[in-house]
Amino acid sequence: MPSIAADTHGVAGHAHHHHALQHHFDNLEQQKESSTLGMWIFLVTEIMFFGGLFLAYTIYRTRFVGVFADASHHLNVTMGFANTLVLIASSLTMALSIWAAQINRRKLIVFFLLLTMALGATFLVVKAFEYREKFVHHLVPGPSFNQEQFQHLQHPEQAQVFYSLYFIMTGIHALHMVIGLGVLAWLLFPSWKGRYDAVYHNPLECAGLYWHFVDIVWIFLFPLLYLLGAHVAQGH
Amino acid sequence: MNTNVATTSLHPGPETGSERPNYLNAEYGLKSWLLTRDHKRIALLYLISVSLFFALGSMFAILIRLELLTPQGDLMQADTYNRVFTLHGVIMVFFFLIPAIPAVLGNFLVPLMIGAKDLAFPRINLLSWYIYVLGGIFTLYAMLNGGVDTGWTFYTPFSTSFSNTHVIATAVGVFINGFSSILTGLNFIVTIHRMRAPGMTWFRLPLFIWSHYATSLVMVLGTPVIAITLLMVAGERAFHLGFFDPKLGGDPILFQHMFWFYSHPAVYIMILPSMGVISELVAAFARKRIFGYPVVAFASIAIAVLGFLVWGHHMFVTGQSIYAATVFSVLSMLVAIPSAVIVFNWTATLYEGSISYQTPMLYALGFIGLFTIGGLTGTMVATLGFDVHVHDTYFIVAHFHYVMVGGTIMGYLGGLHYWWPKITGRMYPVFLSRLAALLVFVGFNLTFFPQFILGYMGMPRRYWSYPEEFQVFNILSSAGASILGIGFLLPLFYFFFSLKYGRRSGDNPWGAIGLEWDTTSPPPTENFYTIPVVTRGPYEYTPEEVHDRRKQEDPVA
Predict the structure, then answer these.
(1) Domain annotation covers residue A3
(2) A102, part of any domain
(3) Number of domains in chain A
(4) Are A51 and B231 an interchain contact pair (Cβ–Cβ within 8 Å)?
(5) In a domain, A59, yes or no
(6) For residue B353, what is the enclosing H or E element?
(7) Which of A42, A50, A161 minimises the CB distance to B186?
(8) Is A105 exposed, middle or buried (0-12, 13-18, 19+ CB in 10 A)?
(9) The domain spanning residue A130 has which CATH number?
């Protein structure tokens, strides 16, 4: 028995097509649900991606407790804390840009996007200073790594593992920030042109989801790398 | 052919079809293909590139089988041989087996089967193909500059600190290629959730869709882990970041855990879509509803989930705790349950079915045979004591070729033969295609069954030479490989031939049920002239007279 065919695209349906509706979706609602779901699934893949690093961190930290605590003591907690505040503030301004879209204020969207980008850039600049400090102190893994400062510990070579993890985790996080800045820059022009309003602002929302995710990764990185074991090291 | 099946066409129109607008004649020119967002055209782009990589991987297989004809190393020495089997593995696993069915058949069929105009993200779909090509270019670069010799598993610390070959370029190639896989899986999940036609409930979905849903879950959850693992390998090799090399304070076993966390489920990325194809073929050519449809659907999900819990069975000899090994062993055997459920349900579907041995059905039956052997030897190697005996021998090589290669190739070729009329509107030569199916089945068994015996006798894998008592079985294996090669070449030729000279197939040459058969062949760019409304399950095949009787009794039906 054949399926009954019916045309869901009535004349009325065509009349109400939104300018942003892509041809293969029935309506804006379906398009919005699809892109939001797609973004969430993408974030799941990101969790698995960072998850590999968090796994390696967890295993080595439980195995090399002393070295990791001592090595983490060389990180700059003040800069890390300042960056945490900067990122949390950027998440707020990102959310406010979506709110601006919901109340149809296109200039306000652009303002908050620019503010978010400025905060994101601040984070990267602070991070660059932190990296510079590590180069100066010979804490970058590789031939120039100064193992001397960990000689009093049982397995000084394991301090390199901590800094390898520090650099790859914060490095990939910073790369995600750069990509995020690119995405926000991409959204500036259509926002200014008034493409996003209360009815349609899905690209903003997806970019926001991504931005918040990158912030949350940092919320985990900061205590794990900078704070955990700080009291142990002070006991030396 | 097809005399015993009724051909029904829903869309009255000229059967010649050459003027009828379809996705192939909608636009012409290279640009219309390279910038297309049509899932059907992207599927064909994948078909071409996947076939090229298959040919490349096969060339390395030929070199392996030629070298192993004789006990001594006369064609090449150890160094060359290491590169040859590594490139064979890398290309076949990452650039053929994993993308083959999802990216070609899945791309083409998922929207058609659920009654959608396209995948949810057409541009991301095209992007995934470009990412695949870019990953391929990196791997080809590594190949042309002398290759890589780590084995497809990239085991540390050899890969990070000792190998003098192009590990980074290859790892980057595989890393990039992984994103193509992730994007395909993401696209499928969203499409299946959000783009189904009115009335297409979850339990009216064809099993092909269920198995692709399960596959997509594995792609999305597993692939990022291999990505980060390979990035760590590249980081250790290039910048001396200490992760896996004991000299730098790392642990090489951690690499194996992270590698197999993806690479074991990756086997299910290869086999699950194939199972979906076989379910379609068995129902269509037995003309029966799939026995225990919801059980098969959930069994595919169960395989995907269990697949994530068994990676440790690749590491029984790494010195992992005996308790961990026991748990991994038991969990591995659990995978046999949903797998066997699916095989038994196919068998029960065949029982008292009206079976016609069309070419696709030959592949389906071949799949059941090969998968049964591969699966049963799988429970053997999941047994701790036995695995220690055959670890790193040809028994393992034979086992995973039966499951991964036998499973994927039979499903892929069976699916291509089944949907070729849908894809091109043309039919291929019947006799030649049946002969090819037979050659593939015979050639495959002759190639790989002797390897079980070799492995059990103790021949280790990855060696270019071997003691003389192993030669007989190696000759058998190489002979089988040449038959297999002819079996693969034949479809290549007659598929090309059919594009121009093949008989026009009509919309539904098999008389099969499914939304993809309700539209024209080849389908129009938008897939359906009108959005279908689904009112029944996926495999409601009924013998004609029963069908008529039902109609009389229940005029509403």
Answers:
(1) no
(2) yes
(3) 1
(4) no
(5) no
(6) none
(7) A42
(8) middle
(9) 1.20.120.80
B511 interface with A at CB cutoff 8 Å: no
Would you call B531 and A24 a contact, using CB atoms and an 8 Å cutoff? no
What is chain B's pLDDT, residue by residue, as a tens digit (557 residues)? Answer: 333 333 444 444 444 445 588 999 988 999 999 999 999 999 999 999 999 999 999 999 999 999 999 999 889 999 999 999 999 999 999 999 999 999 999 999 999 999 999 999 999 999 999 999 999 999 999 999 999 999 999 999 999 999 999 999 999 999 999 999 999 999 999 999 999 999 999 999 999 999 999 999 999 999 999 999 999 999 999 999 999 999 888 999 999 999 999 999 999 999 999 999 999 999 999 999 999 999 999 999 999 999 999 999 999 999 999 999 999 999 999 999 999 999 999 999 999 899 999 999 999 999 999 999 999 999 999 999 999 999 999 999 999 999 999 999 999 999 999 999 999 999 999 999 999 999 999 999 999 999 999 999 999 999 999 999 999 999 999 999 999 999 999 999 999 999 999 999 989 999 999 999 999 999 999 999 998 999 988 998 876 544 444 444 444 43
Closest CA–CA distance from residue A156 to any residue of chain B (Å): 9
Return d(Cα A47, Cα B461) in angstroms, integer.
36
CATH number at residue B361: 1.20.210.10
Residue B60 DSSP label = H
Alpha carbon distance B502, B98 (integer Å): 30
pTM for the full predicted model:
0.92
Is B30 inside a domain boundary? no
What radius of gyration do chain A's Cα atoms show? 23
A90 in a structural domain: yes
CB atoms within 10 A of CB B32: 12
Structural domain boundaries enclosing A99? 65-234
Confirm whether B96 is domain-assigned: yes
